[in-house]
Amino acid sequence: MPSAIIADDERLMREQLKLRLQQAWPDLEIIGEARNGDEAVDMVATLKPDFTFLDIRMPGKTGLEAAQSIGNQSHIVFITAYDQYAVEAFERGAVDYVLKPAEPERLRLTVERLKARLTAPVADMSSMLTELANRIAAPAKPVYLQWIQASIGQEIRLIPVEDVLFFQSDDKYTRVQTARFEALIRKPVRDLCEELNPDLFWQIHRATLVNVNAIEGVARDLRGRHLVLIKGLSEKLEVSRSFVHLFKQM
To answer: 185 with 139: CB under 8 angstroms?
Structure first.
């Protein structure tokens, strides 16, 4: 029975990829999950999986560094959201890749490629890994978060960031509000500020980020506070004094 491990620092991504792999390849046994590259290297040495799914960007040892350490012990499949610099190198290399989020149609193609490699020796990846490392190290345009992985009950939902009207944090969770539903994530607004495109999302309060395209207007209440009106919602979002300057041009 073919086996694999999944290494990704995002638990929701690991769960989503595991579910999609089970659907696309029921015979593939997921025998381990790692949160970083160091854990992945140890798991490969201990469990000896046929395939290792590695997120390129992980804390500690990255996916590329882990792949170098793993060498020919396992067939490597990279997980990446940064297709603009990675895909060409992957297509010419002896490994495959999964783009975040793991879409079923693309994953089926990956599975077919992996089945063909199951009985083949693991190819030498050194030149491809060097090329890919150089691409990642080269100056590039900022890569912003494109998807939000959120829980709605027992369901994992992947939400395009452009569909999010606003993010609002409390002590434990951050509310993700779209036009159709509300979801919760554990990532605070201060972290989202660093990962989202600042031209698309404005911080209007220490706990609130709003999609610029969702702003219908700005009003003042009887206390003189600025309130952002959101398209399609009756809810108004308070603007703290530190961020009032954003709306002077409106």
So the answer is: no
